[in-house]
Every structure is written in C-alpha cells, then in structure tokens.
C-alpha cells in the first residue's frame, strides 16, 4: 500500500511539473486561432539579406523610423479587416505571424511578398517614393500571402491577372476600411502618393478607370486594359499579370459602386468567399472566376440584388458568366 501511495504522489508531482511546463495552456488554445496580429518588422538597411535587423515586434512602441511604423500599421489594418469582417485569423487562417522588411536594397522601385514575408523598397525618389506610404500597397503584398494559402492562383496569364487583381481588391478594401469610406466615396486608386513629384500621374493603377493612372515621359502611359476587347497577349510580366488585372479590377469596382455602402461588406465578402471557399482552381480563367462570384453571391445573399449585380459587372467588362 505504501508503495502505491508513493507512486501516486510521484504521478501527481509529474503532473504538476507538466502543468508548470505550460502544456495545459498550449492545449487550451489549440483550435482557437489568435484574434490579434503578431507583427515583426525588420530593417534591411539598404541591403538585400532578408529579413534584416529586427526593429519592432508586436506590442512595442513606435520607432523613429516612419517606414517601420507605416508597415506595422498597414499589416495591422489588413489583419483587422480579415479578422473582423471575414472571421479569418491572419493569412493562413491560423494566426500566422506577419513579417515585413523595409529599406530593402538601394533606390528599390518595388514591394513584394516572397512567399514568407513582405518586402518594401524606398523608391528612387525620381519615379517612385517609399512603398510603405500607400496602405493599399502594403495590403496588396499581404494579400498575395492570403492567395498563396487559399486558391494559390498560378502567377501567369489569366489566373496570374486574377492573383494580381485579388491583391488590388483587398488592397483597396483595406484602404477604404481604414478610412471608413463607402464604395462611392473611394478613389479606387492603387498606390496613390507613390509617384515622385516629377511624374505626371496619380497612382500605380486605377480600378475605376484602368489605363488612366499616369501618362508620363519616363514611365509612359498606364498600359492597363479596362475590358476584354483590349486584353493584352504578351510574354512580358508573366503574360501581363499586372496589365490584364485591370479587367477584373474594374468588374469589382463596378459591382461595389452599383451595390453602394461599404465595399468590404458585400462585394468584398463575395470575392473573399470565392478566394477562400475551396472551389476556385489555381489555374482558373476570368470566366471561371466570374461564374464562381455569381454562385457565391447567391449562396451568401440569396435572392437579393447581389447576384444580378455581379453578372452585370462582369458583363460590362466583357467577361461572360
Ligand atoms: N509589387 C509587385 C506585386 O506585388 C511585385 C511583383 O511583380 N511580384 O505584384
Ligand atoms: Zn502583386
């Protein structure tokens, strides 16, 4: 009997140790994704090693570096839209930490998502300014991560242009959400404020009027088509992914402004449902995506005006449903 008591005491002690080691805590949160972001920002100090030097982790005070603080805020706004409006915890649906690096390379005229993190250049000051100045560009890059974890649209041709367009859509939604703007109040520009003062233009792209964002001696004219009649067949830019994205971009703008109200509530919900719903193939073309948005509108909103408005928006840009 004595032996048994000792054995029980040892078992209890082991259980206490296990508890101290934090096992019950881990168990209690399993299956409950976090409701707040975990952002970590790095400074590349004009080099190209990623992620660079850590400068601000979640919950830490703002730094002296405005690029760091803008990226931190932009990642936070994107997390908030996904979580509060669509019930998704981060880009993987499971609280994936968000990593961003600023001051990448020297005079780097772009921003990108490398499969694991966001990267932002400072621009050369001649054509482009610091890419963190535009919250829609920050959200655009993060949305590439959302697409990677969901439909994983192939980055070429029509699925590539859809991949680009979905990033612009969520970029615009995060900007409108952070400003509290309705669809009809919004400018529907992507990257407003990113063009250097000497460039004749207003933004990188216009979802409302693709092809009109800039017209400049150095940059040339904004080459985006606004309808299928002007669809661009090219070998460049992975088959024109940043060009033909103008077509689905305008379809989204037409839908959101026709419905009115806040674009993320109905138009955005439909696009989110298609992107994350599991039906969208990674090699989907425009027409396949368009049909899925009509179905998603019916599933989500039933016999209201939404599905009809979706069909009309696609029809106006020449995509059949
Ligand atoms: N800024 C561009 C984008 O996110 C970079 C690229 O072409 N991948 O689309
Ligand atoms: Zn992109």
UniProtKB/TrEMBL annotation:
Subcellular location: Secreted
Enzyme Commission code(s) on record: 3.4.24.-
Residue ranges of domain Peptidase M4 in the record: 42-148
InterPro entries found in the cross-reference section: Metalloprotease_M4, Peptidase_M4, Peptidase_M4/M1_CTD_sf, Peptidase_M4_C_domain, Peptidase_M4_domain
Transmembrane segments: none
Signal peptide range in chain numbering: none
A GO cellular component entry from the record: extracellular region
Keyword Hydrolase (UniProt): yes
Leading EC class: hydrolase
Keyword Metal-binding: yes
Location of region: Disordered: 46-65
Name under which the protein is recorded: Neutral metalloproteinase
Species for this entry: Streptomyces finlayi
